[in-house]
Design goal:
Order of helices and strands: HEHHEEHHHHHH
Number of helices: 9
Strand order of the largest sheet: 1-3-2
Largest sheet: 3 strands, antiparallel
Radius of gyration: 19 Å
Structural class: mainly alpha
Helix content: over 70%
Number of strands: 3
Shape: elongated
Length: about 210
Amino acid sequence: MESKTEVAAERAYVTTKNGIISGALPGGSLLSEVAVSADLGLSRTPVHEAFLRLAAEQLLDLQPRRGAVVRPVTPSEAADVLAMRHAIEAASAAQLFGQGGPDDAVRAEIDENLARQRDFVAVEDVDGFVDVDDEFHLLVVRASGNPIAEHFYEQLRARQQRLRNLLLRIDPANLQSSLVDHEELAACLCDGDTDRYSALLQAHFNRYQGAL
């Protein structure tokens, strides 16, 4: 059973990490253990432990006597994350094509996901769209049946979500553009158009790189 301190540290960690990923705590923000402790009604010890975890994940820079600073997403980090995403997703799609493409169950999941994307775009709900965007790409990775690909995709997930939030909040038009990309990717996936799928996937990721 977790101790009260461990539970409190996890709460501080999750809350702060979610703030960073969502953009509520943008790059360059100065965070104080005292202030976060007061906001969450916790002692400083669990908040300090949470900050150490986030520093290890390269989301915070700890500064003696000042607190912690949220690390901005640099162009080089974005390029690295997107390169890894492309490698994982392109390989997953290739395996899926090699298996004959998505089965009826996966196609139904894709259709349902796209329907929810359209709903979120219609009301310009960035938070909702970010979640179904992630789910859409994960569907392809999972459908490949490659647990190693899924594992590495999960390791990138926090950074991916942070990039999505950055892109989609810069300009609401990016919601519609991302939806169109996803609809075209889904059509290629279901039609077995390997070459066009790969080209579209690269163009989709280039949109992120160009916005940062």
